[in-house]
Design brief:
By secondary structure, the chain is an alpha/beta fold. The protein has three domains: 49 residues, no CATH class; 112 residues, Rossmann fold (3-Layer(aba) Sandwich); 108 residues, N-(1-d-carboxylethyl)-l-norvaline Dehydrogenase, domain 2 (Orthogonal Bundle), CATH 1.10.1040. Helices cover 47% and strands 14% of the residues. The chain has twelve helices and nine strands. It starts with a helix and ends with a helix.
Amino acid sequence: MGGGIAMSFVNAGIPVTLVDATADGLARGLDRVRRNYEASAARSRMTAEQVEQRMGLISGGTEDTALAACDLVIEAVFEDLDLKRRVCARLGAITQSGTIIATNTSTLDVDVLAKASGRPADFLEMHFFSPANVMRLLEIVRGVDTAPDVLWTAMSLAKQIGKVAVVSGICYGFIGNRMAEVYLREADFLLMEGVGTQAVDASVEALGMAMGPCRMLDMAGVDVGAGTVIERGKTGDLPRDPGYRAVVRALFEQGRLGQKTGTGYYDYQGRTPVPAPELDRLAT
């Protein structure tokens, strides 16, 4: 997500600083951004010179103090409430007064993270959808203390980077993931009843969706999908049915994280999904 969010700003000519906890993670992120741009150049959608121009707008590092002078900081760490609390507290401490601090959480309580930052008036959510550099929808979630000028700035910036922004209050999943939860729940139940991934996806794609739920989660990351369920479980809000979203949780436990690992709801030959016999055994 970090790389895709960075590309969204760079594509609009806005310089970006990428920070990762490790040098390897940073290198992977920068490499993914470059490969995305080079793929566009290979399809004649941009020139080699434009690739270098856009890469030149991105700086990177492993020290979060590199963010101290930024006007906007967006955290996109793993969907773990305690981790995000620590990150938001750190961002509140190191950034200058007036810096907007945004979270990219899928489902966590924005007010909890805003409080952790120590600067709730400067805090909101800017929730990008995967792949962030392609998907135009941007959820902007206001907290109870978000200042009006902060909300206005986020909405204006969304237009500048070519996104369609929608404002949401705080509830589980906000808008997009609140709807998706029901959709993904039923997909997992169908798999557990013996319906194959291809049949599940094909039925949805026949209605005009770009991809079905299994392919979608593999692209976004099974770890992201499972993380939202696991974190909700910690609040006691999950149904008591042990089979609820059991497939995505089992895939996560087995390290089958989707395209990024080559296995998930499908197995992958490059980016081409093929049926995964292990998934059928696991689901049924």
